[in-house]
Amino acid sequence: MEKHAMIIINPSSGTEKSIQFKQDVYDILIEKDYSVTINETKKENDAKNFAIQASKDAFDLITIMGGDGTVNEVINGIAEQEHRPKLHIIPLGTVNNFAKAVEIPLKTQQAIDVIKDPTEKLVDIGKINNHYFMNLVNIGAIAEATYQVTAEQKSKLGSLAYFIEGLKKFNEKDIFSVKIKLNETTQELDAMLVLIALTDTFGGFKNAVSEADINDGYLHVFVFQEMSTLEILSIITSLVNGQLKDQHTFNIGKRRA
Ligand SMILES: Nc1ncnc2c1ncn2[C@@H]1O[C@H](COP(=O)(O)OP(=O)(O)OP(=O)(O)O)[C@@H](O)[C@H]1O
Asked: What's a BP term from Gene Ontology annotated to this protein (predicted)?
């Protein structure tokens, strides 16, 4: 039976290299006996809508050429569909957090070639209200600051751009009150930042949350309370070195996703 693949390309992702690889991806899928439909995104939600269509039309595969935002849209498109195509991700974003977490090759040609001899991985996804996520959720002013990072800053600085914006907010000590019901316990805490991770990768740093596995079925919940600049630096070092789990005062537990 003929196999169907949809390529979803975000031409604006990362360093805007996706278009130059379009033909290579098309050729390899044809070589693997897929019939191929190509869709380019123009704006927010296009990738999600293409993915919904691919599910409804019972496509076998969606090849995503883009960054975390594009992958997230596709996941939101397929999550609640009866038929979910498999995903082949070609990381072309700035940070590519999810690709790092799932250990997809970051070199474009290698990621394309994965389809020649594919291995399948199941991954956890989480849900907030009606929105699915596959990386992590940040709550607080620090998290909001990261949304102010411009596309230009991202292209120039990569993940560092987020850290710089985040650090500015850390100094303002914006504390908020948060009530967390985790398993059977409810805690009310004052927090600077709440981080809920599904994978071990944060801000593009592999192993930052080394206890989290992509398919362990858990949400890993961290609450960062008011901290001195020294403590903040120590946490950043932990993130980079993969020792966030050792900061037990901040790790308040995990629950089944
Ligand atoms: N043609 C387009 N021009 C501008 N923006 C687009 C276009 N198509 C999609 N978008 C927007 O781009 C967002 C996703 O970008 P994506 O995350 O893939 O790239 P990135 O930001 O460079 O990567 P990363 O998230 O890894 O840093 C989508 O959510 C959508 O809003």
From this structure: phospholipid biosynthetic process
The CATH fold of domain 132-256: Tumour Suppressor Smad4 (2.60.200)
* CATH number for the domain running over 3-121: 3.40.50.10330
Question: Would you state the pLDDT for residue 145?
Answer: 64
> In this structure, what are the phi and psi dihedrals at residue 12, rounded to the nearest 5 degrees?
-95, -5
Does residue 162 contact residue 201 with C-beta atoms inside 8 Å? no
**If 0-12 CB within 10 Å is exposed, 13-18 middle and 19+ buried, where does residue 217 land?**
exposed
pTM of the entire predicted model = 0.86
CB 227 within 8 A of CB 215: no
The pLDDT value recorded for residue 19 is 85
Closest residue (by CA) to atom 1 of ligand 1? Answer: 42
Tell me how far the alpha carbon of residue 13 lies from the centroid of ligand 1, in angstroms: 5
165 contact partners, CB below 8 Å, separation of at least 6: 145, 146, 148, 149
> In one letter, which amino acid is 183?
N
Task: Please tell me the distance between residue 67's alpha carbon and the centre of ligand 1 in angstroms.
Answer: 7
